Amino acid sequence: MEFDSAGVPANIAAAWGLRERPGKGPKPGLSLDGIVAAGIRVAAADGIGAVSMSRVAAEAGASTMALYRYVRAKDELLELMMDAAIGDPPPLDPDSGWRAGLTAWSWACRELYLRQPWVLRVPVSGPPATPHQLAWMDSGLAAMAQTGLREEAKLSIVLLLTMYVRNEATVAVDMQTAVQALGSSLDEAMSAYGKLLKLLVDPARFPALARAIASGVLDRADDPHEEFVFGLDRILDGVGLLIEQQADG
């Protein structure tokens, strides 16, 4: 990882505007913000795999070499695009309670992933450190300000929710992509899956799975929102127990 003179990773320094911007170049109007916006347009249209320095340069109406005056590498560009795309979290009602706050926070996070699925494909280069990543972290922590939980526990809960939301959104996007490729609906795909399992599953070998199949639970797709709510509620139930245990301790 490349570091600047202050010991800050180069990509993080760029995200925080800590790096000296280049002087006026040969392309009037070219800026770091414009380059990032061009990268986001490419990713939104054709996916993260289509993002290259040359493609983004063309989208920005500049030469590839001109981009390198502002962005040192593609990985740095992806980091800047991700931070710009996630933006600031929506304000939470401080009087709504920790559970309502974390619920709203998790839903907002999920919605931004589903709205901009390419963000899920940006490689994770380290713990959150860009401005908007830290804004989301701060918002999640603030929702638990009145719980009495230790700071270590709060950070672990934010990390757990982040991983859950990201994974659930990734699966939802992948499932939708697969279903669209088949030219069918999610209900049709799940019905076909249930029929396939009925052919494959031997009750003697997979008795518990056979009982689940026989119940008809796999005959249709569950509402993706209901699945998300179920998992989120179980996590928050656990947070509630932790709060009670700490209060009793």
UniProtKB/TrEMBL annotation:
Keywords: DNA-binding, Transcription, Transcription regulation. Residues 29-89 form the HTH tetR-type domain. One of its GO terms (biological process) is negative regulation of DNA-templated transcription. One of its GO terms (molecular function) is DNA-binding transcription factor activity. Residues 52-71 bind DNA. Gene3D superfamilies: Homeodomain-like (1.10.10.60), Tetracycline Repressor, domain 2 (1.10.357.10). It comes from the Bacteria. This is TetR family transcriptional regulator. The lineage of its organism: Bacteria, Bacillati, Actinomycetota, Actinomycetes, Micromonosporales.
